[in-house]
Structures are given as structure tokens and as C-alpha cells.
Design a protein that fits this description.
Blueprint lengths: L12 E8 L2 H10 L6 E8 L17 E7 L8 H19 L6 E4 L3 E4 L2 E10 L10 E7 L21 H22 L2 H9 L7 E5 L4 E9 L5 E4 L5 E4 L3 E3 L1
Parallel strand pairs: 1-2
Antiparallel strand pairs: 2-3, 3-7, 4-5, 5-6, 6-7, 8-9, 8-12, 9-10, 10-11
The chain binds biotin.
The site of biotin has 20 residues, from helix 1, strand 3, strand 6 and strand 7.
Length: 247
């Protein structure tokens, strides 16, 4: 149970819940009911946490579960970039709280890793009524603070003292707002650069699971839209828009 509560502010419209199925599901209902951008749903525990690609998100009490409503000035085509903006924001905050010997890295597109194990994840969901504009997006962020599922990492592993979900939420909202503004005003280039500096396995061989095949290649970086650039064994470059990277 988190003890620290973020202070109310004009930029943080916080809805705090003890237990909920999924903060993303709750926030999506609010978004459909005209709740404003900047509304943040925070739960201390989830009973039906969801991950990307239909996975379950193990949600132990005391970890961070938050979902932010955004009303971005972006087209559906630009929405892929948003996941990199959020991933960089979350990584920046987590880098500040782990001890120096621990490394925070990003796995394409937006998994957060701590010394090679998954520490956090991001699930962005949008209204899909059209391609021209996006009425709302819900950005769900989960970070293992006190306890991790088998094979994953939590901040407690990284000898972090006194870092509570509420502190992280407050810092993540600040950093996200800053970087989202930067993205809307100046575009994707610097976000892309920042993501690449934190990328895991860059210039190394990775495997990618696509709907109908698994492929291996060297991870060359991101293209201007955030697609993964993979050098195939025949030397040709392939761009991946969606899929699961594994090692
Ligand atoms: C992933 O698969 O890596 C994404 C995980 C996203 C989990 C967070 S926890 C808060 C929000 N509510 C959910 O049900 N999922 C997201």
C-alpha cells in the first residue's frame, strides 16, 4: 500500500482507487465520457491488469498502475511515436531512482528493462473511429516497484530506498507532459534520438515475432516514424511496424 500521495495541482487531475480491474479500462470509460486531458487514474492494485498483445499484466499491490487520458494533437499515423515519448519519460524518471550499477534500457517499442529483465510496460489505447484525428488516447503505465513476477525485475531489486508508486506517478506525469509538449511543438527527431541512446541490444542480433513468422537480424535502429530497422541475413533492411522483440 502506497503511503505517499501526490499533491493536487492544476496539471494533475488525479483519481485514486484502492483496487480496480484495469486502470486503462476505467480511464477509457472516463475518456468516452468527456473527462479532460491530464486526468490520471491511479490504482494501488489491479485484478485484471492488461499488457500489450492481449497479455495479462501481473499486478501486485504496491506496484505502480496508472493510466493517463490524453487528447493529442496528432493523427492516427503519428500515434506510434507517442509510445516512444512515454517510454523515454518513464525511463528518465526510473534512471534517477536506481543505484548507479543498475541500467535502465528500452526494448522496442516501449518495454522498460532493468539489467536485462522487464521492469515496466506501457499500453496505449485510442479511439479508432477515423484516421485523421485521435479524440483521446489512454496511456497505461505499469512499473514493478515492490514485487515482480517470475523472471521480471522490480525496483526493490535495484536497492532503491523509499521509492513509492505515488512518487513515481508524480515524476512520470511531469516528465511526460514536458516531452509530449516537446513532441507536439518540435516533432519526433529528438525523442527518437533520446530513445536510441537508451535502446537495448542496438547493433546486436535480435529476434522478432511477427503474426505469421519469427525473424532474426541485427537491430540497426529506428526510422523516422519509429519502425524498427532490422538488417536481415541477406544484408537487406526490413522495417517492422509491430511485433514482439525477444532474445
Ligand atoms: C506491456 O505489456 O508491457 C504493457 C503493460 C501495461 C500495464 C499497465 S498497468 C496500468 C495500465 N492498466 C492496465 O491494465 N495495463 C496498464
Amino acid at each position: 500500500m502506497s503511503l505517499y500521495k501526490p499533491a493536487p495541482s492544476p496539471t494533475l487531475n488525479l483519481i485514486e482507487l484502492q483496487t480496480i480491474g484495469s486502470t486503462n479500462d476505467y480511464a477509457k470509460q472516463l475518456a468516452k465520457n468527456a473527462y479532460p486531458a491530464g486526468t490520471v487514474v491511479w490504482a494501488h492494485e489491479q485484478t485484471a491488469g492488461r499488457g500489450r498483445q492481449g497479455n495479462t499484466w501481473e499486478s501486485y499491490a504496491g506496484n505502480l498502475f496508472m493510466s493517463v487520458i490524453l487528447r493529442p494533437k496528432a493523427s492516427m499515423a503519428q500515434m506510434g511515436q507517442m509510445s516512444f515519448v512515454v517510454a523515454v519519460a518513464v525511463a528518465k524518471v526510473l534512471e534517477k531512482v536506481v543505484s548507479v550499477q543498475y541500467q535502465i534500457r528500452l526494448k522496442w517499442p516501449n518495454d522498460i528493462f532493468l539489467n536485462g529483465k522487464k521492469l515496466g510496460g506501457i499500453l496505449i489505447e485510442t479511439e479508432t473511429t477515423g484516421v485523421q484525428s485521435v479524440p483521446w488516447a489512454v496511456v497505461g503505465i505499469g512499473v514493478n516497484v515492490v514485487k515482480a513476477p517470475e523472471g521480471a525485475a522490480c525496483l526493490a531489486d535495484a536497492k532503491v530506498q523509499k521509492t513509492e508508486a505515488g512518487h513515481l506517478l508524480e515524476e512520470i506525469v511531469k516528465e511526460m507532459n514536458f516531452l509530449l509538449k516537446h513532441w507536439e511543438e518540435k516533432g519526433f527527431d529528438q525523442i527518437r534520438e533520446a530513445w536510441l541512446k537508451k535502446a537495448w541490444k542496438i547493433d546486436q542480433e535480435i529476434s522478432v515475432r511477427l503474426p505469421k513468422e519469427e525473424i532474426k537480424g541485427v537491430f540497426l535502429g529506428l526510422d523516422a516514424q519509429g519502425s524498427l530497422r532490422l538488417k536481415m541475413p541477406d544484408g537487406k533492411e526490413r522495417l517492422i511496424n509491430s511485433g514482439e522483440v525477444f532474445f
